[in-house]
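Quick one, T. Sequence first:
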Amino acid sequence: MLQFGGTQITGFQSLQNEFSIQNMPLVTEEVNVFVLLHSLLRLKLSRWSYYSSFCSLSQSKVVIVWHDTNIHAYSLKRTLKIPIVCVQNGLRHNVGPASGTGFLSALETLSSSISPHVDDYWIFGEASQQLLQSSIKARYHIHGSFRANEYAAMRQTLVPNSEKRRIGFIVSFPNASDVPGGYILNNPAPFFQFNGSVISYHEWFKFDEIVCRAVSQIADECSLDCAVIAKRHGKDTLESHYFSKALERQRIPVIGHEKGAGYELADSFDYLVATESTLGYEMLGLGSRVAFVSGRLLNIGIETSELRFGWPLELPTHGPFWTTSTNGDEIVNFLRQFLKLDNSVWQTSVSDIATRVMAVDRGNSALRRNIAAYVGHN
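Structure tokens:
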């Protein structure tokens, strides 16, 4: 099978023992000269004829898409006769790069010329299907997160490494090399845009400072160890620099991790706090106690339901483990009530909602069966 996009196998590495996987990079990433000549000999020169030639020459029976926000994936059915399988690997919304467009807007633009279409779309949960099914024609399979499902299959019960209970705040900062100037605090450079509103790095991450202060306060009040769970590995990270400057006297450890090891790190905490982090949703699906403080866009002054917990599900703005509060004192009070939830209340309040936003299929057994059927494995 072919992985569409990227110059190496990344997310699907765990499938390589069972299936033969080749890369079909985007033409903007890497061009195979032999494939290009084959396309030219057919007197056809376009990205779509190139992809068609690539599939023909590789004799692949299915194309699988890891970067499911790659808008070109939904046009492949115009020229490819083999099945196209998409796998959701992050939360989906219409917040887009400052110089580009949001995913949902891109789909709307595409739909003016063709019908965005893949054969199968493996998605996180009911919320994702509600969001995407009106824009993308596909057979939708609710299975959760591919990486979290792989982790669930090998997950072990971890023994806490501290006598004190721990609370971790999950953050998601970009690579320093991708940020103009290499810093976040007071950086006016444009970062994202949403429906025409341009959001700077400082504006976007100001909410992380507010939430982190609340987490630190409740940790002191409840005698919990507290740490920031960074997205990447490295001692001199953007997160370390940001929180050391923004929180001044409050010295909160920032713990990074190697790529793919975020689940083990998050599993070592008794409680987790997240904003709109995919890892937060994944840990909720895996059964961890996660509190969601999802008022980032509201804090910037943008009135919208996007990025709120569970969107586009019709949930109240506040619940037992989520809130849209932007006020520090209100967030502290929310976390105080969250920490008091006993096991029975937690199971009752979480069981239905968690599966609606993030299902779990340990080992991705259903996806593996789907691929095996396409490639002809028993």
